[in-house]
Design brief:
- The complex is a heterodimer.
- The longest helix of chain A has 44 residues, at 259-302.
- Chain A contains 13 helices and 14 strands.
- In chain A, a hairpin with a 2-residue loop joins strand 7 (175-178) and strand 8 (181-189).
- Chain A is an alpha+beta fold.
- By secondary structure, chain B is α/β, with parallel strands linked by helices.
- In chain B, 35% of the residues lie in helices and 29% in strands.
- Chain B is built from 7 helices and 10 strands.
- Chain B has helices at residues 44-51, 74-84, 100-111, 115-128, 144-156, 174-189, 201-204, and strands spanning 2-13, 16-28, 33-37, 59-64, 67-68, 85-88, 162-166, 193-198, 209-214, 217-222.
- Chain B has a 6-stranded mixed β-sheet with strand order 6-7-8-3-9-10, with helices on both faces. In chain B, strands 2-1-4-5 form a 4-stranded antiparallel β-sheet, with helices on one face.
- The longest helix of chain B has 16 residues, at 174-189.
- The radius of gyration of chain B is 17 Å and the shape is globular.
- Chain B starts with a strand and ends with a strand.
- The chains are: A alpha+beta, B alpha/beta.
- Chain A binds chain B through residues 1-2, 5, 9, 12-13, 16, 305-306, 308-319, 393-394, 397, 400, and chain B through 49, 52, 54-55, 74-75, 78-79, 81-83, 87, 89, 91, 93, 95, 97-98, 106-107, 109-112, 154-155, 158.
Chain lengths: 400, 223
């Protein structure tokens, strides 16, 4: 028997036991589809997080006050000390480091914004001109806080704030009141939406020293630092720690977070998670494989007389084995392909439902899903095919 | 052509060995028409299965066309069966999901005959057995006589030297049975060896040589 004939004959069997074939194919397909959709979900989440992180800046280093301890309480608290505040002077020291391209001090608070008989509470960021390039923000109109303009009372509005207070769109040059202070609107941020749980459309930005006056504080909330290049990040981190330790009387009471490290951690966690769900989905494929084996065993039983006949007209054990083996292969292949398409469709629905989530199944997962389906199908067919091949022709023929 | 010497085939029934064939000697020449008769359990079907290489004797020697076939491997036996033996069964044994033409084509497929040649041979067989109009029908849509004609066409498509028929008319009525016998006997007239197992005395009597069996032994052999 030629391979081509064996393939055609077993395809006929697949086609003529329609319900049976359809059920097996469905079982296989759901297994493969589960692998595809779940890895799409996992990898989508990973990429979503990566996108969010890169949208807040490149080569970003964040300096925050206080020492993050993984064990126990803050050591200073035991000795009756509080962590030293970060100050503008600290920020300037950091800015002078060789590995640092630019920096922006940051203060954050809430104040009442009022203009043209409108009034509302807003989140206020106090910062400097370099915040824009560091945080990858863009302006829709006007200009940002001018360099060295620490003492001019400028304010930059988030997109929603601008349209709320100045619906006619003429925000630039308008006077606006923030708390007890008066500001001149110099620019409006482009609408960016939410990023890292922070909506830049609903904030206002003022120079850092106005913010410190407004909130009556001399400390900083954060210092945002941009390293000169990716390679400079580790040495910049060390240099910052070193510099601020000196300026804080030898006390290492700040924490430096690099965007890379955080991103790498998230990346690792989400990759592991994706692998885990893919593994769980692959278990459903083995279940489908067992189903294939079961159904093929039933098929051998059902077709005992036919196997006996094939032997009587001159088929040898290898021919019979090949017929059943290829039949199982057809079923698994159809299941794998159908499942792949089903999975792609599922991922498409996910992307439509959650446009922010880039739910594309990674190529390796799709390939692995199809491959596992084929391998389990092949393994599952070995036992039934062997049993068929070993049937005693005389006994097989006497069965009705 | 067929030469059986001291062929023994036993089955284990519980702790007792039952001899389906007990040291059977039999010679059948090419072109003979032989009927094998006997009560149920006399070993006549087992004898036919051994001649057709479907079953292996526990001891004894079987020569087919001067060649010892008892020692052949299963694959080699399958080849010999394909080329030299044609089986016709009481229950027809057609593959239900294949059409009449495809059922007839099966031995050619197993033999690896190229598709073009297959088409011609099947067309000739359909014509020879008057089945052209039924070629695309499945077994379920055929009458008993038509089914047995398809089975005979299938058994003869590779032009075997012997046809082994096990109660070929057992599932057919008298008239149709007689038609099927005519077809088988035509094959015999054309030179094929015809060996038939039957219960039916009248049918058995049509053969040139009558073999009677009882308890795994040949008790009568009348030409």
């Amino acid at each position: 028997m030629t391979l081509q004939d064996a393939m055609l004959l077993s395809l006929r069997s697949v086609a003529s036991y329609r319900v049976r074939s359809l059920l097996i194919i469905l079982a296989m397909a759901f297994g493969v589809a589960a692998v595809v959709v779940l890895t799409a979900l996992g990898d989508g989440a990973r990429r979503y997080v990566a996108n969010q992180f890169s949208s807040i800046g490149t080569n970003l280093i964040i300096v925050l006050p206080g020492r993050a301890e993984t064990t126990g309480a803050f050591p200073g608290a035991v000795m009756g000390q509080t962590p030293r505040d970060l100050t503008l002077k600290d920020a300037q020291l950091v800015g002078r480091l060789a590995q640092v391209k630019r920096y922006a001090p940051l203060n954050i608070g809430v104040a009442e914004l009022s203009a043209a008989n409108r009034l509302r509470e807003v989140t206020v960021l106090g910062s400097s001109a370099d915040l824009i390039p560091i945080r990858h923000m863009t302006l829709a109109q006007g200009s940002f806080l001018a360099h060295g303009s620490g003492h001019s009372a400028q304010i930059v509005l988030g997109a929603k704030m601008a349209s709320d207070f100045f619906p006619e769109g003429k925000a630039i040059g308008q006077r606006i009141r923030l708390g007890e202070m008066r500001f001149l609107v110099s620019g409006v941020l482009a609408a960016q939406g939410e990023s890292m749980g922070f909506n830049t459309d609903e904030i206002v930005i003022i120079p850092i020293d106005y913010a410190q006056t407004l909130f009556n504080t001399s400390s900083l909330f954060r210092i945002l630092v941009e390293a000169k290049s990716r390679r400079d990040i580790p040495s910049a981190k060390l240099a910052i720690l070193d510099t601020l330790k000196q300026s804080h009387d030898g006390e290492e009471d700040i924490t430096v977070i690099t965007q890379d490290a955080v991103l790498a951690t998230f990346d690792r966690i989400l990759r592991a998670l994706t692998l885990a769900v893919a593994g769980i989905a692959a278990i459903s494929l083995t279940v489908a494989g067992i189903l294939v084996m079961n159904v093929m065993l039933v098929a051998v039983n059902q077709r005992t007389a036919e196997i006996g006949l094939l032997k009587a007209i001159g088929a040898d054990a290898a021919d019979i084995r090949r017929l059943f083996f290829i039949e199982a292969l057809w079923l698994s292949m159809a299941g794998a392909i159908f499942g792949f398409l089903l999975g792609q469709f599922g991922s498409l629905l996910l992307r439509l439902a959650y446009p922010q989530l880039p739910a594309w199944a990674p190529v390796w997962a799709s390939l692995a899903g199809i491959l596992v389906a084929l391998v389990t199908g092949i393994l599952a067919s070995l036992l039934p095919a062997n049993r068929a091949a070993k049937l005693d022709a005389v006994k097989a023929l006497s069965r009705k | 052509m067929i030469h059986l010497a001291e062929i023994t085939r036993k089955f284990q029934m519980g702790d007792q060995a039952v001899y389906a064939l007990d040291k059977v000697d039999l010679n059948i020449a090419a072109g003979e028409y032989v009927s094998i008769m006997g009560p149920s359990g006399s070993g006549k079907s087992t004898l036919l299965n051994i001649i057709g290489l479907l079953d292996r004797p526990d001891s004894g020697c079987y020569e087919l066309d001067g060649k010892n076939v008892t020692e052949l491997s299963e694959t080699e036996q399958a080849r010999v069966r394909r080329k030299k033996i044609g089986f016709v069964f009481q229950a027809f044994h057609l593959v239900p999901r294949l059409t009449a033409a495809e059922n007839i084509e099966l031995p050619l497929i197993l033999n690896g005959t190229p598709p073009v040649e297959r088409q011609t041979l099947v067309a000739e067989a359909l014509q020879a057995f008057d089945l052209q109009s039924r070629a695309q029908h499945r077994p379920a849509e055929l009458s008993g006589g038509q089914r047995q004609r398809v089975a005979i066409a299938r058994a003869t498509i590779l032009q075997p030297s012997a046809i082994l028929a096990d109660e070929p008319t057992g599932n057919l009525d008298h008239v149709i049975g007689a038609e099927v016998m005519m077809l088988l006997e035509n094959l015999h007239h054309a030179g094929t060896t015809l060996i038939m197992v039957t219960h039916d005395r009248e049918l058995g009597a049509r053969a040139r040589r009558h073999i009677g069996m009882r308890d795994g032994k040949i008790v009568t052999d009348v030409s």
